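Lab notes, practical 5.
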Amino acid sequence: MKGKTVPEDTSALMTVDEAAAYLRLAPWTLRHWVCQKRIPYVRLGRSVRFRRKDMERFVTQNLHGKLDERGGAGREESRLGTAAN
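Output from the prediction step:
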């Protein structure tokens, strides 16, 4: 993963190594998640690519126990808040 650059354009397609570097994961973890269909990906022939905006959304959707930047509750807290009402 050293020396890999991540595209700045949110619509740019990233390779497994680039997306893994962006998420700070081992590439094999990302490949495993693709097999499990746990993370959004694009298949181009036999190649797998990732859109940066999908990676950003994936991170946001998996945020637990913290308030988001807008001052509202994160996914976990909003679910707990509505369940308590």
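Observations recorded by the TA: The chain has a mean pLDDT of 81. The first strand starts at residue 13 and ends at 14.
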